Amino acid sequence: MKLDALLPNLGEWLRGTGPESDVVLSTRVRLARNLSGLPFATRAGPQHRSEVVARAKEAIAKATDGHKLEYFDIPSMPTLDRQFLTERQLISRELAGSEGPRGVAFDATETASVMVNEEDHLRLQVLRSGFALDEAWADIDRLDDALEARLNYAFHTQFGYLTACPTNVGTGMRASVMLHLPALGLTKQIEKVFRALQKINLAVRGLHGEGSRAFGDLYQISNHVTLGKSEPKLLSEIREVIVTILQYERQARAALLKERKQAEHDRAARALGTLSSASMITAEETMEHLSAVRLGVHLHLIENVPITAINQLFIHTQSAHLQKLAGHPLGGEERNAARAKYLKAKLRELGARQ
Amino acid sequence: MKCQRCSKQATTHITEVLGDGRYEEAHLCEDCRKKYLIEVSGKPKAAPASEPANGAEPLVAGPVCPNCGLSYTEFRNQGRFGCAHDYDAFKAELLPLLEGIHGELRHVGKVPRRLPQLQSAEVELTALRRDLARLVTEEKYEEAARVRDRIRQLEQGEG
Lengths: 354, 159
What we know:
The structure holds 2 protein chains of 2 kinds. In chain A, strands 2-3-4-5-1-8-10-9 form an 8-stranded antiparallel β-sheet, with helices on one face. A two-stranded antiparallel sheet of chain A has the order 6-7. Chain A is built from 12 helices and 10 strands. Chain A has a domain at about 260-350. By secondary structure, chain A is of the alpha+beta class. In chain B, helix 5 runs antiparallel to helix 6. The termini of chain B are far apart. Chain B has a two-stranded antiparallel ribbon. The interface between A and B is large, with 61 and 50 residues.
């Protein structure tokens, strides 16, 4: 698998076809694991880190859980490719930017990945389209078993899976659900929802975390607690909350349709107009407009724009993707021009119309 | 946006709800977020260890892990453990911290499938490491090498 081959593709998790996909873009579950007998990242020299990589690579190559993972070395990878993998949610910024032997293994559908020598020796991740906590957990549980068959994990009878940071100890599991909540944003109810979330100890952040307001009305909701509750219990707590937020978002969408259909149609149409005719556009503005178009599609105000295409544009209009498409590095203004050109071409291809 | 504690990119935006409609915002990078969460959960303990009174070094660094050499104070400053043994080396200090973060102190989730095997290997490893130290002091190098190989084998999970 060559990285460039991924470029025109879309990770399975972005298909936009999973359960509740009008509101839930994707579900992610990650597990933090460390190998026993080796120091954690802050105390690991190059030799220890190489040892982690060697053991992890062997276990990944022999894992028989159905995912065919291929390993990529990060230090020898160009900066642009690292950013590219970050935009595709396959690696973290920390793994892209840190030092020493490290890497990532993932499968061709970009469903499962294993980061090696991030904050913990191993960070397993499974990404699914739509609201699919149980499926994602079943998937990562199998991958974890397959790796554990060949690796000795650092495990404590009282504290569970030991992690470099005490905020992850126990299950080492972080489950997050990415939501598109434009109607709650428009009707100014989003603050209320998040206040309620903080009370029950769930965290909220944007797609990539930039800006205090999540761009494009995309929010990730995840569990804080990892110790003292079983994985199914943690998942069911998140599920309960997401189901409630789903109801609120749908009620707000219904209210928008009922009370100001014309205005919403206009907003979506103008957003699509800007996306298909601008000659320079920033990533932030693109996300805001894509969000309006996505809502317009779900409210049946806009036709001929498949949701998969919008999901794809959220990812493919980010800077590393544009530079990979161009085949060379681009400055800030060049990127904005390239982004506008790409959007124009894609939307024309789709024959989008209001 | 930059992290308000260092110059890295802020990736986490925390809104602390103080009640009565009052909020406190924090914009932090990944590293500072972890420290923040630990500090918050460490409250209402006295001043954080990173800011000793009068700018003087604290006299007591707390317990030190015999395996990796990390002191408890170093752990509190960087927010990360140095090795798996820290959890036992700092256990007394950790319990209130974990209680603050998770509200619980005992793992009840998944357990590695090979756990019983791992635990018996741990017991054997402890004994072997003791033997190795003894054999080296007694200058019985040939025997020591055999023990060392067995230790490596166990550490790599080849039972």
